[in-house]
Structure formats: C-alpha cells, structure tokens
Amino acid sequence: MATGDAQLFEDTFTVTDYDQSKYDRVARITANSTDNQTQMMLDINIELFPCLVGENLQVVLATTLALDGNRDGEERGWRDVRGESTLADMYDYVCHGKIYKFEDGVEGQTLRAYVSFGGLLMMLEGPYAKLTPLRVDNTYLLVKK
Fold it and tell me: What is the pTM of this model?
C-alpha cells in the first residue's frame, strides 16, 4: 500500500471562526477549504496547537502513520516507533480517533462525516466525491500550518 492509499482525505482550510467559550484549553474552529467545497468544524487543544482566524491549515485523515502506508506495525502502537520516521513527523498536531457517523448534507448534495478524537470532535461536510474514501474506521488526524 502506498502512502497515497493510506491518506483518506487531504485538503487545505482557512479558519473562519474560533470559539473558546465552553472550555479553557479547547476551541472549536470552523474552516472552509480553499476551493470552498468543504466545510470543517474541529475541536482542538489550543495549548498544543494555537491557531487564529485567517490561518491556513493543511488537514489529512490517514489510516496509518507509516510512511510506506503499511498497517503491519499498527499493533505495537503509535508511540512505539523505535527511531523510525512516521507521517506524524511532518505535522504539528496529530490525533487518533474514529470516524463514527455519516449523514446526508444540505439537500442531499453533500455528505457529512463525524469523527471523534477522544471527545474532541470533527465534522467534515463536502461533495460525495471528496469524502467517499472515508468509512467507519479508526483514523489519524494530521494538521499543520
């Protein structure tokens, strides 16, 4: 499996809203993709990854952190990399979670995917073609500015 096969979704987003009213260390950001086809809401730990309205974020959802896309080493855990380079080395903010639900979006023209990263939530809404590779499964979120 090539690295491209391990990447389920990749896009660049511009942060349009930032809401930290509910928690001290978590903000819910709203962002639109640069082509304005996909919207994202994401809860982030702002102590680990501070961001501001107007910043661009590169967002990837992947099935594995292995650079070769191979999932063979997944049983040993993401922290036990033994000096190997991983996809996480190229990003600033990495979470492991589960894609748990799909819904039809506005007028059935879009798809909504919901992901939980230990209680930090993500919602992606976009065209079926962009979100079709997603399925109910474990996933890694990788974000960089």
Answer: 0.87
